């Protein structure tokens, strides 16, 4: 059983990422349960996808303390879902923050969020630099880049080739080469 929680805010590609992973699992003949909690996604609100891959799960939702992997697109969302991480679970997180706009009483500092995650997780946290992403890749494929890092780090049991097969079916041909490059990143 693999419990994978994906979190971010609306427009970052969390739902597509969960579907890519889920379809790769289905292509292998594995049982997959999944659910999205979308909330105010259209307005930049929280989006969380639960994926449970393998036998033995009857619920699509991951209980707190049971996520083997959390993939986070935004540092405040990473902190918010930290209670879901299993004691031996790992987190792969972009160091990006989408700080609330004007009128917020006290916007949080992204560096503080990342420092907190590091203090809680130590070597169970893998940080992907947003600045490096923007410099080296199109930010629109940050979800697929994170997926590639998860595969390269051994966090997910799929090969790049398996994900490319799914990308060919799910991504517009216009953006396929860009997504494959990000996956291989």
Structure, described:
By secondary structure, the chain is an alpha/beta fold. The chain contains seven helices and six strands; from the N terminus they run βαβββαβαβαααα. A six-stranded mixed β-sheet has the order 2-3-1-4-5-6, with helices on both faces. α5 packs parallel to α7 (173-184) and α6 (160-170) packs antiparallel against α7 (173-184). It starts with a strand and ends with a helix.
Secondary structure: number of strands: 6
Low-confidence stretches: none
Order of helices and strands: EHEEEHEHEHHHH
Strand order of the largest sheet: 2-3-1-4-5-6
Number of domains: 1
What fraction of the residues are assigned to beta strands by DSSP? 15-25%
Return the structural class: alpha/beta
Helical amount: 25-40%
Average pLDDT, to the nearest integer? 89
Number of DSSP helical runs: 7
CATH architecture: 3-Layer(aba) Sandwich
What's the CATH H-level homologous superfamily?
Pyruvate-ferredoxin oxidoreductase, PFOR, domain III
CATH domain topology: Pyruvate-ferredoxin Oxidoreductase, domain 3
Shape: globular
Main pleated sheet: 6 strands, mixed
Rg over CA atoms: 16 Å
